[in-house]
Design brief:
single chain, 349 residues, alpha+beta, Phosphatase 2c, domain 1, 2 domains, 5-stranded antiparallel sheet, 8 helices, globular
């Protein structure tokens, strides 16, 4: 199998970008990495860069596919940061998160430390998301908080694990049982500055809208930019999509039905868009008061809500059709995550 990769990394509302990322393909093996330097610790941008470079160098030297190899790459990143701390005392407190995806073109493994995330999508739906090593995630695990509250909680940046802490606190969460890859499967690796601004349903909706990996990432970034403020965090994301002729083919009738459904939705959306433009063109010259403007604003908002509802309906129909396909094909997949305990807290921002 081959992979389609797109990446974005922006400064956001900060003075410097403390995020780093990288990816490398060697023969049939490949890896992708995102790291987010901790802003509350001097040298965060150095820590993230060192971690990515060291992990990629370790992969280049040992391009193997195994959980042990993945652990080795993360160990290399940790050791590189600790050595840099000793050489540069002014950066002795630098820290970073990291998330890493590893494949042999047929299977996938991943690992993370901190709150940089990996999402795995199958048939356009999120089937797995890494769990943050953070105070708020621990509260969710304990039943004290809803997962939907993480994004806006005041303690969301307090981490329990990261690279750059002592050896006793370096405990990554690793997927030890490989996941078999399927055609059309996708992954999203991102820093918290990205996932805090794009919700899980929106990730799925934009995936359904997009014609390819680049458009998928662009649609998500567009949502993020609409919510950006002057003090918004750096954001980084890598979108990866499995692309292979070896992937199982969809049932012809289901595929045809899905294409017709998608065409009908796109046609309706195009009409809605044209209607919105005409509405604005016709009514703007006639606006004489604030109330007129607010009425027009409500009409445009209603059109936007109808558009999003249509996309959600299309995604639901797509999932229903693909569920029927999966029941016919009976695919065999195994995914197991092994997590370890918690450690001493560390403020991120």
């Amino acid at each position: 199998m081959s992979f389609l990769t797109e990446a974005v990394s922006r400064i956001g509302g900060r003075e410097i970008n403390e995020d780093s990322y990288g990816f490398l393909e060697m023969n049939h093996n490949a890896c992708w990495i995102v790291a987010d330097g901790l802003g509350g610790h001097r040298g965060g941008e150095n820590a993230s860069r060192i971690a990515v470079e060291a992990a990629l160098a370790s992969f280049r030297a040992t391009p193997e596919f195994s959980a042990a190899a993945l652990q080795h790459h993360l160990d290399a990143a940790q050791q590189a940061i600790l050595q840099a701390q000793k050489k540069q005392p002014s950066f002795s407190t630098m820290r970073t998160t990291i998330v890493m995806l590893l494949t042999d073109s047929q299977r996938a493994l991943w690992a993370h430390v901190g709150d940089s995330r990996l999402y795995c999508l199958e048939n356009g739906r999120i089937v797995f998301c890494t769990k943050d090593h953070s105070v708020v995630q621990a509260m969710v695990n304990a039943g004290e908080l809803q997962a939907s509250q993480i994004r806006h909680h005041e303690d969301r940046n307090r981490l329990l694990r990261c690279l750059g802490n002592s050896e006793a606190d370096f405990r990554p969460t690793i997927l030890f049982e490989p996941r078999t890859l399927q055609g059309g499967e996708a992954f999203l690796l991102c820093s918290d500055g990205f996932w805090e601004g794009v919700t899980e349903p929106e990730i799925e909706i934009d995936f359904a809208k997009a014609e390819g990996t680049r458009e998928w990432l662009a649609l998500m970034e567009s949502r993020l930019l609409e919510r950006t403020t002057e003090d918004s965090d750096n954001y980084t994301a890598i979108a990866v999509r499995v692309d292979s002729e070896m992937a199982p083919n969809a049932d012809d009738s289901l595929s045809s039905s899905l294409k017709k459904s998608r065409f009908a939705i796109k046609t309706r959306l195009a009409r809605l868009g044209l209607l919105g433009v005409l509405l604005i063109a016709l009514e703007i010259p006639a606006l004489h008061s604030w109330n007129d403007f607010k009425a027009l604003e409500r009409k445009v908002r209603d059109l936007t809500e109808e558009r999003d509802a249509l996309w959600t309906g299309m995604l639901r129909e797509k999932n229903r059709l693909e569920d029927s396909q999966n029941q016919l094909q009976n695919p065999q997949k195994v995914s197991t995550t092994v997590a370890t305990g918690s450690s001493v807290g560390s403020d991120k921002k």
